[in-house]
Batch of 3 targets.
Target 1
Amino acid sequence: MRIFDLSGRVAIVTGGNGGIGLGMARGLAASGATVVIAARNPEKSEAAVAALAAIGATSAFVPLDVADPASCGDMVRQAVDRFGRLDILVNNAGMSIRKAPQDYAIAEWQAVLDTNLTGVFACTQAAYAPMKQGGGGKIINIGSMYSIFGAAYAAAYSASKGAIVQLTKSLATAWAKDNIQVNVVLPGWIDTELTQNARREMPGLHERVLRRTPAGRWGVPDDLTGIAVFLAAPASDFVTGAAIPVDGGFSVEF
């Protein structure tokens, strides 16, 4: 079905060299998109590019420090200069610092928001002009279950991810006239490097997640491939401003 065909489209995936980002990149590439991996770690990113090339995709690495707005702008310009257009942006790069709220240094709070929220805005702002020039585009932001729920040990992360939902709605409203759809995916507990660290730091987390998740398992990055393709493809041309959980039922279990 051509409504899921991404041939000829160019996608940027921030933080696309591992975890959820790489899972989404694989889905976009398998559907025909050229994929730019934008991240800090060159060795890890080149390995991701090689993995995409192994499935027949055109891919490239462009350096990005998402906490630096100038780097966000440079990254988008390099991607457009290399491939001639920009159709899809996946804002996936993120971080967390796990502490009780009273123990946060303001610098730590700011570091999380700079990466998870301001970085998303800077990349999205940079993507607007080439998308508009190309006749439209798709922006996929990555939120979290903590866009919905609170967490005693992740105040900054939860605040940033809640804000991503409202930012998504505002951008969707502002740019609908330009044929740019903006949506946010809310992953549940996905088995990534970030959540593996969380399990080491939080005894009992693994068991609590399994008890709460109706699907009875942790997600894996490839569980995000389908939603990435849908939100990037013509199939979702009338979907904008939506916040979509991909969580095995975690957010609906009481």
Target 2
Amino acid sequence: MLYRSTRNADEKVTASQAVLKGLADNGGLFVPEQIPMLDVPVEKLADMTYQETAYEVMKLFLTDYTEEELKQCIQKAYDKKFDTKEIAPLVKAQDAYYLELFHGSTIAFKDMALSILPHLLITAARKNQVQNDIVILTATSGDTGKAALAGFADVKGTKIIVFYPKDGVSPIQQKQMVTQKGDNTFVVGINGNFDQAQTGVKKMFSDQGLAKEMAQAGYQFSSANSINIGRLVPQIVYYVYAYAKMVKSGEIKNGDNINVVVPTGNFGNILAAFYAKNMGLPIGTLICASNENKVLYDFFATGTYDKNREFVLTSSPSMDILISSNLERLIYCIAGNDAQKNQELMVSLQEKGSYTITEEMRQQLTSFYGNYASENETAATIREIFKDAGYVIDPHTAVAAAVYKKYQTETGDQTKTVIASTASPYKFTRSVMTAIDETYNSREDFALVDELASLSNVKIPKAIEDIRTAPVLHNTVCEVEQMQSVVKKFLS
């Protein structure tokens, strides 16, 4: 299995090289030359553990990793860092099945992929005789940063630098990042939004002069963002796992379609479901849920992607994104894997802030449904599901649940549906508690944590207890245009 750049048909690499590089030379993303078909029957998958399922899916994509290497990476990743044996439990509430992806060490779905990426990366470095230290350079809208920091902290031969929008993450998310231990970790708040942080990181990746300077100093960049194929492949696993478990429990019969709802900003998580569908998993509709930064909803409604709009800070900050990087992989696919056509659209996005796909391309998006939830609808959904089912969800998951209700109303579709539950409510206690009852708004953040524990009867996660009294270790703040100089200073 080789990987191609979405912007250059001539650039081909192996899986381990794609994981190592993160981003293609000209700013393109690596995609597999073809999507492999699942080669294990669902009946057999139904009896497998999460770790066994992960191997059966990932071996099809990461073909230059040996069986021993891949199984070792999986065992190191999906261990006691997760607080449930199932790794990704399915919980039924009202008429949907919530796939809880937040049981890892940083209580967000990013753990599902970022627990394994460091192991895939170090294995790839050995495999490709890399002598340089690897510098993980990442922008985060809240969750990727902490999950990447936790994954790479004190991993020999690596350093990690995380940029986040200083005023664009939740208090808990910020505290998780700025208290991160590890001699190789560096966290920087920027005076700007996530899109500016992400653009700054991408510029550094494509700066050939900087790459030479880095190499002379004994470093090379790689990415932990979802632009890295090593992030995307592990995310496919949990959709396959969820389907197999629904068959095992008798909720569906093998071959029955399910729908999948994903709250998304950067498009990686729903793209993983799209890949699972193309591997033969019986997924009917892929429901793309946006918050008030509804650039993806508008794209599916009109065929035009336009980031020229106001950037809104919401209660679901991990989705406060106007440039959905992973959408490029889908665009490349519906353009007939035509790198030239995709490159033209991406240049238009860079120069004009927008592009419009052809009608022929739009016709290939019929399995997608897009909608969005306002801040009021998000809060109302948290409150309603708690009162009706006694189940507490975070704002991102609430966006998905609200959009699912709209989808049902519009279509009448009663297909069994899995909602990707992307973060623990404990990560967004203020938003969750004030949605349930506005009188909680006057309380201090960690008092709300205790209140949520008594309300939900769910134990406070270790990730939250650990940061209650943890000292702040990272207090660097910079302007967007200072990002490169900050990186150089840290590495020197």
Target 3
Amino acid sequence: MKPIDYAAPKTLAQAVTLLAKHGERARVLAGGTDILVQLREGRRDCDVLVDIKNIKQLNELTCNPKGKTPDLRIGAAVPCYRIYEHKNVRKFYPGLIDAVELVGGIQIQSRASLGGNLCNASPAADTIPALIALQAVCEIIGPNGNREVPVEQFCVGPGRNSLQPGELLVAFRMPPPAARTGAHYQRFIPRNEMDIAVVGVGAWVTLDEAKTRCTAARLALAAVAPTPLLVTEAAAALVDGEINDALIDQAAELAQAAAKPISDMRGDADYRKHLVRVLTKRVLHTAIERAKEN
């Protein structure tokens, strides 16, 4: 590795100034579990690393499911272990916990963050389908002010995101868990030694008062396209009739049709498409069962 400058701003304004000054030659350091490896391997290059761990707003985690304040807000630098150890997040957002607990091992989870996982923009990232399913919105700050972007619009290609020069992802915001809602995330990996999803599926559903029909749904896929996918056709199929195996299978078939995977060392394209159908059915069954319990 070549020499790289290091900066540790303490405010959002300082971070934005640094990022704007150095442009493409600056990289954000949150947990460092991705960027440091990429720099060592020559897959990324920069002149300065901007460590954001000292910025208060990026380390805040608030969960007020029944309050008037933002219902779940997670700073972009909050490490995974703080999310899954938070009692209210664990109780009201189990679909997010499913994904967060899969990010590496204990050591990685003490550093890795939702923000880093999203900004890395891997098509196989575990947390992104769960965030999409839960309607998460990104809060972004930059030289031109603040803006918001739904998570499903944030990744624009493998390793590429929609942040503009000088912009910084500050936090995620998710709506409250309404009655009769449930979410779930599952992935398939080739073996324990290769901790990267061959396919990942996240789902969120809302049921009617009788808990026999789905009134709203979201379904997201990982590792089957250049970016994580929000599959609206599959979700729409779930609200067409009474919940049963045939309806779930129809949604799974539509999710399978939306997948456009490649073949690589983790699995060929046909195998991945098969897994999409299998995992979608499993994830929907669990999300529906969770909704019935709420």
